[in-house]
């Protein structure tokens, strides 16, 4: 197995329904524009409160993807 080199990009996912959906939305979006997405890490969780209740979830997600081999 060859060694891999990864690049990491950071993005923020949000959802009105759950943290899980905020994470999944961020990973889905990253996967639609980046090739070879292979892992994620949640680095921050926060939310928005309206009228004393949770109104919105936000997560900062670091997404790792494999860099393609260069052809010489």
Summarize the structure.
The chain is α+β, with helices and mostly antiparallel strands and 72 residues long. It has one helix and three strands; from the N terminus they run E-H-E-E.
Structural Rg: 15 Å
Largest sheet: 3 strands, antiparallel
- Summed up, the domain count is 1
How big a fraction of the residues is strand?
A: over 45%
**SS content category:** alpha+beta
The CATH architecture name reads 2-Layer Sandwich
Average per-residue pLDDT, rounded, comes to 91
What is the CATH level 1 assignment?
Alpha Beta
Which percent range fits the helix content? 10-25%
The total of helices stands at 1
SSE pattern, N- to C-terminal: EHEE
Q: Termini, distance in Å? A: 20 Å
Can you offer a commentary on this structure?
With 72 residues, the protein is α+β, with helices and mostly antiparallel strands. The protein has one domain: Flavin-binding protein dodecin (Dodecin subunit-like), CATH 3.30.1660. The chain has a three-stranded antiparallel sheet, covered by helices on one side. The relative contact order is 0.34. The model has no long low-confidence stretch (mean pLDDT 91).
Keywords:
72 residues; alpha+beta; 3 strands
Produce the secondary structure layout.
Blueprint: E1 6-15, H1 19-33, E2 37-50, E3 53-66
Antiparallel strand pairs: 1-3, 2-3
